[in-house]
């Protein structure tokens, strides 16, 4: 198996309540429909990249419980390399409690569980895998010291690093400088740049600021407003596809995973963004994180609807 992308990140079981509106503090909303799905930002991006045609290896930490077992089986069924997945004996698989309202908006609370066992020491045991990667994809849902360790190691190995700094937190220039690709949503763009990103001009300003911190390319996903991307040579605002969302959970993860898959297949940046934008839009029309990550045929069929 080729080793195009190595994802280092989280896995969660998502416990989902679809309800009329998101509960306010102290409120009980009694009309929820319950379901569960495999999630976690790292796992969602891994699955999205694999379904979009990339060879993907996943470094994550699962609990030795039924959720962990079923995730492991699912990763194998999708064709993901699971050789470096940890299974903790004494910590449960990460869990996310997700509320989704009728507009598809969500609120999420995460109990990290076994994700916290993904240590820098364990990354040392994965050095051979990381050395063979074309691109290393990271999020921020595992211990931050591990993220820093992977960035330093990947940079010393001369690897392309793609970072999706979610959930949002402040980062330093040293974290952004070695990046090949920084993909952020509005919240993350505002936090990292310290600038508002409400108007188009502000998005462009924030994007330029982040690019000046060192990444080769910056991508800002803006939900229904589309996607803005820039490099030293080009910059473009791309419109969102007009879909009616059921559940926006993991739309950003699908975007990142699919974009990574296109980068390792050496697609032109404009085409890669268009493809990832379509996959993310399509994902919002299906409930659940990993169930909503489309395959290549589904993305093609979706794009065909919009080609006139
Ligand atoms: O980005 C969506 C993901 O965030 C969910 O799948 C949930 O597990 C949380 O990690």
Describe the structure.
This protein has about 300 residues and is α/β, with parallel strands linked by helices. The protein has a single domain (about 5-10, about 40-95, about 115-305), classed as UDP-N-acetylmuramoyl-L-alanine:D-glutamate ligase (3-Layer(aba) Sandwich), CATH 3.40.1190. Helices cover about 35% and strands about 20% of the residues. The chain contains eleven helices and 14 strands. An eight-stranded mixed β-sheet has the order 4-1-9-10-11-12-13-14, with helices on both faces. A four-stranded mixed β-sheet has the order 3-2-7-8. A two-stranded parallel sheet has the order 5-6. Helix 5 links the parallel strand 9 (about 135-140) and strand 10 (about 160-165). Helix 1 packs across helix 9 (about 250-265). The structure holds alpha-D-ribofuranose. Alpha-D-ribofuranose binds near residues 141, 249, 253 and 289.
Which key features would you list for this structure?
UDP-N-acetylmuramoyl-L-alanine:D-glutamate ligase; 308 residues; four-stranded mixed β-sheet; alpha/beta; binds alpha-D-ribofuranose
> What is the class in the CATH system?
Alpha Beta
State the separation between the terminal residues, measured CA to CA. 38 Å
What structural class results from the helix and strand content?
A: alpha/beta
Give the topology string: H per helix, E per strand.
Answer: EEEHEEHEEEHHEHEHEHHEEEHHH
Query: Looking at CATH, which topology would you report?
Result: UDP-N-acetylmuramoyl-L-alanine:D-glutamate ligase
Determine Rg (CA atoms, Å).
Answer: 18 Å
Query: Total number of helical segments?
Result: 11
How would you describe the shape? globular
Helix content: 25-40%
Provide the number of structural domains: 1
**Fourth-level CATH superfamily:** Ribokinase
Which ligands occur here? alpha-D-ribofuranose
How many distinct beta strands? 14
Could you tell me the mean pLDDT?
A: 97
Unreliably modeled segments:
none
Q: At CATH's second level, what is the architecture?
A: 3-Layer(aba) Sandwich
Q: Order of strands across the biggest sheet?
A: 4-1-9-10-11-12-13-14
